[in-house]
Amino acid sequence: MSKLQEKVAYLKGLAEGLGVEKASREGRLLTEIISVLDDMTEELCRLSETQQEIEEYISALDESVGELEDDYWGFHEDEEDEDDYEDEDDYEDDDFIELECPTCHETVFLEGDILDDDSVDEVSCPECGGVIFDFGRANAEDEADITVPPED
Fold it and tell me: Which of 51, 76, 85, 138 has its CA 20 to 30 A from that of 11?
């Protein structure tokens, strides 16, 4: 920011050195432009200082939140990342059933446990809302459309 202030100061000195007078139209225009540039430079300096203070404040808040997370949950970010990977592994180990919606032909994956759940009567397509699988009317033909991915 100091370069900008130096340039505006140079323009002020140049205008004085050239004898630009406020009495003429051009002189008045040039002195007003230099004055506006000076005001803008001061405002930019003030904004820069404010931004720096806000960045320091946010950094301090982030550090405090990190300490609170460690105190509350009793773990660090590295441990949290490992937990996320474990959750993804659990997700991948689940049995899923692949079904194709007879209405919109969208491929839908359902948890394998849904076949054992007696409280579920039918499964609807999340895309079109049509019935994908009706457990009350299931017969050998419906079950033939179910594809269970092979286990690793």
Answer: 51
| Angle formed by the axes of helices 2-17 and 25-73, nearest 10° | 170
The answer to pTM > 0.90 is no
| Confidence (pLDDT) at 105 | 85
**DSSP string across the chain:** -HHHHHHHHHHHHHHHHTT--TTSHHHHHHHHHHHHHHHHHHHHHHHHHHHHHHHHHHHHHHHHHHHHHHHHH---HHHHHHHHHHHHHHHHHS-EEEEE-TTT--EEEEEGGGGT-TT--EEE-TTT--EEEEGGG--HHHHHT-BPPPP-
CA neighbor of 41 nearest in space, from 10, 81, 69, 7: 7
- Computed over every residue of the chain, the mean pLDDT equals 80
